[in-house]
Amino acid sequence: MAATLDTEVTVVRNPASGEEVGRASRSGPADAAAAVARAQEAFPGWWATPAAKRGALVRAGAEAVLAQRDALALQLTLEQGKPLRESRIEITRFVHTLDHYAGLAKSLRGAYVPSLDVDAHGLVVKRPLGVVVAIVPWNFPTTLLGNKLGPALVCGNTLVAKPAETTPLTTLRIAELMRGAGLPDGVFQVVTGAGSVLGEALVTDPRVAKVAFTGSTPVGKHVAELAARGVKRVTLELGGSDPMLVLDDADVDGAVSAASVGRFFNCGQACLAVKRVYVHERVADEFVEKLRGKIAKLTLGAGTAEGTMLGPLHSESQRETLERQVSETLDRGGELLVGGRRPDGAGLANGWFYEPTLILEPPHDAPVAVEEVFGPALPVWTVRGLDEAIERANASPFGLGSSIWTRDLTAATIAAERLEAGYTWINSPQIVYDELPFGGFGESGVGKEHGNEALDHYQESKAVVVKQSPR
Fold first, then answer.
1. Distance from chain centroid for Cα 34
2. Helices 51-67 & 169-180 angle (0-180, nearest 10)
3. Is 263 in contact with 275 (CB distance < 8 Å)?
4. What share of the chain is helix, strand, coil (3-state, %, to 5)?
5. What's the Rg (C-alpha) of the chain?
6. How far apart are CA 125 and CA 462, in angstroms?
7. Active site residue 271
């Protein structure tokens, strides 16, 4: 939205320096109601648009975004803090997801049930839900938007997105580019403001049919409670504390690389990330020493600086939370191998930087074991075998992702079946594929994003009985 009815403004700042990088409207309930009204008005025409044409318009929008990838990546780095390389990956990922669902537009179909009764057959008709609200966090503002936007629009819904108050700028620009590429007015809108005000107004609007939310588990529970009052559809992608299991026959070098990338990508600020490592005692010394060496080579700096591998945490509160978790853990036990403090160095004092941290054998009930850690800190424990590793891995309320490194196909199969998580990687870094469903167990959420399964969460199935007239 270019204008706002509630005229307060949010200043967006660079997490690496504290400098202002832009401003966005701090919209309120009146803006939420106006956006939903426009989405509701646009819905009949968008639903009536042939699915193939909807897909073509989504693809055209994605191509417009890709053409501006470098400019968007810079904007994303300035407001979020991540290195430019990671921002380019994120913009590309957004485009890939939209392109994937644009390609599925021609495959939307219902079902035919013959011989339902004498002279009767049945149909399963698929139809869009209506107005969808997408609430997206600050850690991956565009990737997590694309997960919702692609399937929602292709299925014929209209969508109102609310990005995090600290990362609205890239999302606003993407919406402009997609409208410029031909997306009709009202089909995809962005409103910016505080979750406690704007978000609640959107979630509780009776004209909204579905809420797609990514964020912390406590906030997700609150969103679900609000949505339940209107019996709205919800998809919740919430917190995670993903375990990695490294057995004694593993490719240790591959596992070390996957642990490093899986924990420290985006400065560790990801729901889906390696956050607990359980390594077999026979290879533990080798694994830990190689991981410590790899972590020591990570270069901290502003996301715009050449050579930066680890940017700042996104906010002061994020760093304070991480410092508490690490401090309380070390007070209770465990050996600090790397990091555990704010870094020294020119150019780092004004940002929310924290050294990549490795902790060996902390208590299993310490904060880094039982809480979601949203920052560059990784605990490692030794285990005696697969059964103990799985038991420890499952001793968490979260169940988003998991991984195992082993050359034993039987062990890998057992782990894939028994690990309580929505995603399991075997001898693979944590890469999410649009072709596979993604969603958590337990307190990590409900519903699925990605895969064909995501389409079901943006459509309603209607049963139709057709009785033939007597001949």
1. 27
2. 120
3. yes
4. 40, 25, 35
5. 23
6. 5
7. yes
Burial of 375 (0-12, 13-18, 19+ CB in 10 A): buried
pLDDT at 470: 78
Contact 319, 375 (CB under 8 A): yes
pLDDT at 260 over 50: yes
Tell me the pTM: 0.95
For tokens 């107004």, name the residue. 201
CA 315 to chain centre: 18
Are the C-beta atoms of 13 and 19 separated by less than 8 Å? yes
Cα separation, 325 vs 375, whole angstroms: 10
pLDDT band at residue 299, thresholds of 50, 70 and 90? very high
Q: Give the span between the Cα atoms of 452 and 457, in whole angstroms.
A: 10
Active-site residue, from 86, 271, 420, 443:
271
Q: Does 155 participate in catalysis according to the annotation?
A: no
**Are the C-beta atoms of 312 and 351 separated by less than 8 Å?**
yes
From 86, 90, 165, 237, active-site residue: 237
pLDDT surpasses 50 at 5: no
**pLDDT, mean over the chain:** 96
Count CB atoms within 10 A of the CB of residue 387.
11
Distance between CA atoms of residues 233 and 54, nearest Å = 22
Burial state string for 40-49 with b = 16 or more CB within 10 A and e = fewer than 16: bebbeebbeb
DSSP 5-45: SS--EEEEE-TTT--EEEEEE---HHHHHHHHHHHHHHHHH
DSSP secondary structure, 402-456, as one string: EEEE-S-HHHHHHHHHHS-SSEEEESS-----TTS-B--EETTEES-BSTTHHHH
Q: What is the pLDDT of residue 2?
A: 34
Q: Report the alpha-carbon distance of residue 38 to residue 222 in Å, rounded.
A: 26
Q: Where are the beta strands (DSSP E) in 85-173?
A: 111-117, 120-128, 131-135, 158-162
